[in-house]
Amino acid sequence: MVLMKPPVLRVELPERLYSGGEKLSGSVLLEAAQPLSVAGLRVTVSGRARVEHRGGAGGGRRRREEKEYLRREEALRLEEQLTTGTH
């Protein structure tokens, strides 16, 4: 039995955190150890804000809140045969 290495999908962004209104740009890389047929790729981006506040006597009271501000999906249709390597 020959085990095939699964393809690796990596998203590369120049920053780890972004503020509201900033443009997001980067790369989506697909690394294949053997030729691979790809019909499409779906990229989902979501933005969240998380806040945690500790207060009160001795910092015993905590309050947390989280809100989703953005959720966007893009579907890319490729319909091609990819060769071994990074694309």
From TrEMBL:
Domain Arrestin-like N-terminal: 14-84
Any Pfam family: Arrestin_N
Family matches, as SUPFAM superfamilies: E set domains
One GO term of the biological process aspect: nervous system development
InterPro entries given in the database record: Arrestin-like_C, Arrestin-like_N, Ig_E-set
Superkingdom of origin organism: Eukaryota
Family: Belongs to the arrestin family.
Descriptive protein name: Thioredoxin-interacting protein
Organism the protein comes from: Dissostichus eleginoides (Patagonian toothfish)
